[in-house]
């Protein structure tokens, strides 16, 4: 196991009714808030009113910005930052899914930065310039990205077809409310996409040829089994509290940094390829991942890394036998079937994606160098995976 520093400072308020404690938890960070949300889901569920209530009860004033898109746009980041500067706001409170929380992080950064965050951070990754930001807090309404507990922000720029990520501990939310009842209204489609996204984050950290960090691998298998157990339950019965609660906590644990502590390296190739799909076609992140993942697994599987698939197949899917390649292939098939049973398409053409932008996407995914660690993927490899997934 490699050395690591573990410091995840986000205070989590988990469970039904926790939103009523939000106001007082924000007070140490300020009393002027940008209240950021997406389209209508928080008004329909009544969460909007509850947030207003807890802010008002604690003397916290707020300015609203709504309409954050799935695959949030840089224009919204700029608009939010302007509002923060104009009104002297101190905290960006995101109420919604990963898109809203990611957008809040971009706003928090831009509000305290004189340059252009898109150019300097999302494009050029000049983290040495990241000195200050507003505080970010969140009320999570969709279990998927882990953004409620991590420092990542993924933002899109439609005119150039780019979707780029940044990550910094300085952007982790200071407080996040995780009330599973707010996810009761998540559609089947988004529940499936979220379930795939949680699993994919774990895969990206689990699948490396590295044999160290035994404990982290066992934690990841437990999380995968949990998500495989509860994902279909939430899909079938949206108001199953236990299922929603387990998915919600799995989403946070899946990508808050805990699982990769002590791991020599992690993969992230599937995510980089999916971000190209979302950038060019504005598709749902988890759906893109669900299509790509089994093909990525098939492409990277080799005698050198088969032991990881054997661990996965035996621990997560209980596949019997002794032939390593056979267990590995079955584990990939089980993964594919699981996604299909959640209504995830099997091929890109099912979501109207053809091969016309494959070259461009393969180029975009590898423009900062080869992807991944299970197998180093050059542009030609990414092209091959896209063709397999067509
Ligand atoms: O806009 P509203 O009305 O809120 O509707 C949203 C949106 O249409 C809806 N929704 C959210 N909560 C709901 C609900 N509908 C009914 N009831 C609720 N309780 O769901 C739709 C999708 O929301 P979105 O926030 O886009 O989903 P998700 O949480 O999956 O976030 C996806 C974004 O996060 C990025 C993705 O690339 C994508 O842009 N990611 C962020 C990561 C991170 N910060 O660490 C890592 C991920 O790998 C990912 O890349
Ligand atoms: Zn993801």
UniProtKB/TrEMBL annotation:
<dbReference type="GO" id="GO:0046872">
    <property type="term" value="F:metal ion binding"/>
</dbReference>
<protein>
    <submittedName>
        <fullName>Uncharacterized protein</fullName>
    </submittedName>
</protein>
<feature type="domain" description="Alcohol dehydrogenase iron-type/glycerol dehydrogenase GldA">
    <location>
        <begin position="9"/>
        <end position="180"/>
    </location>
</feature>
<dbReference type="GO" id="GO:0008106">
    <property type="term" value="F:alcohol dehydrogenase (NADP+) activity"/>
</dbReference>
<dbReference type="InterPro" id="IPR001670">
    <property type="entry name" value="ADH_Fe/GldA"/>
</dbReference>
<feature type="domain" description="Fe-containing alcohol dehydrogenase-like C-terminal">
    <location>
        <begin position="191"/>
        <end position="389"/>
    </location>
</feature>
<dbReference type="GO" id="GO:1990362">
    <property type="term" value="F:butanol dehydrogenase (NAD+) activity"/>
</dbReference>
<dbReference type="InterPro" id="IPR044731">
    <property type="entry name" value="BDH-like"/>
</dbReference>
<dbReference type="Pfam" id="PF25137">
    <property type="entry name" value="ADH_Fe_C"/>
</dbReference>
<dbReference type="InterPro" id="IPR018211">
    <property type="entry name" value="ADH_Fe_CS"/>
</dbReference>
<dbReference type="InterPro" id="IPR056798">
    <property type="entry name" value="ADH_Fe_C"/>
</dbReference>
<dbReference type="Pfam" id="PF00465">
    <property type="entry name" value="Fe-ADH"/>
</dbReference>
<dbReference type="GO" id="GO:0005829">
    <property type="term" value="C:cytosol"/>
</dbReference>
<keyword id="KW-0560">Oxidoreductase</keyword>
<dbReference type="GO" id="GO:1990002">
    <property type="term" value="F:methylglyoxal reductase (NADPH) (acetol producing) activity"/>
</dbReference>
């Amino acid at each position: 196991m490699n050395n690591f520093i573990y410091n995840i400072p986000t205070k989590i308020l988990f469970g039904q009714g926790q939103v009523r404690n939000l106001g007082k938890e924000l007070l140490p960070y300020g009393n002027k808030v940008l209240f950021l949300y997406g389209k209508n889901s928080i008004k329909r569920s009544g969460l909007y009113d509850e947030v207003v209530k807890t802010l008002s009860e604690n003397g916290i004033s707020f300015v609203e910005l709504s309409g954050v898109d799935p695959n949030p746009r840089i224009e919204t980041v700029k608009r939010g930052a302007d509002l923060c500067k104009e009104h002297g706001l101190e905290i960006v409170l995101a109420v919604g899914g990963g898109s809203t929380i990611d957008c809040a992080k971009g706003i928090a950064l831009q509000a305290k930065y004189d340059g252009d965050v898109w150019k300097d951070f999302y494009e050029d990754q000049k983290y040495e310039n990241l000195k200050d930001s507003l505080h970010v807090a969140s009320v999570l309404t969709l279990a998927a990205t882990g953004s409620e507990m991590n420092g990542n922000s993924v933002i899109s720029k439609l005119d150039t077809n780019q979707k780029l990520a940044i990550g910094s501990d300085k952007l982790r939310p200071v407080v996040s409310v995780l009330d599973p009842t707010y996810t009761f209204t998540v559609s089947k489609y988004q529940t499936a996409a979220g379930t795939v996204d949680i699993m994919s984050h774990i895969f990206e950290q689990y699948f490396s040829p590295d044999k160290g960090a035994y404990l982290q691998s066992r934690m990841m298998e437990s999380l995968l089994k949990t998500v495989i157990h509860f994902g279909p339950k939430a899909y079938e019965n949206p108001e199953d509290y236990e299922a929603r609660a387990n998915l919600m906590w799995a989403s946070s644990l899946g990508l808050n940094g805990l699982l990769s502590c002590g791991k020599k390296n992690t993969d992230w190739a599937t995510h980089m390829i999916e971000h190209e799909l979302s950038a060019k076609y504005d598709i749902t992140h988890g759906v893109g991942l669900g299509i790509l993942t089994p093909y990525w697994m098939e492409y990277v599987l080799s005698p050198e890394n088969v032991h990881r698939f054997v661990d996965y197949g035996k621990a997560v899917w209980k596949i019997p036998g002794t032939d390593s390649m056979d267990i590995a292939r079955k584990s990939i098939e089980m993964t594919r079937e699981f996604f299909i049973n959640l209504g995830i398409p099997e091929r890109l053409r099912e979501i109207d994606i053809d091969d016309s932008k494959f070259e461009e996407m393969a180029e975009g995914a590898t423009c900062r160098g080869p992807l991944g660690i299970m197998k180093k993927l050059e542009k030609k490899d990414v092209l091959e995976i896209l063709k397999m997934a067509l």
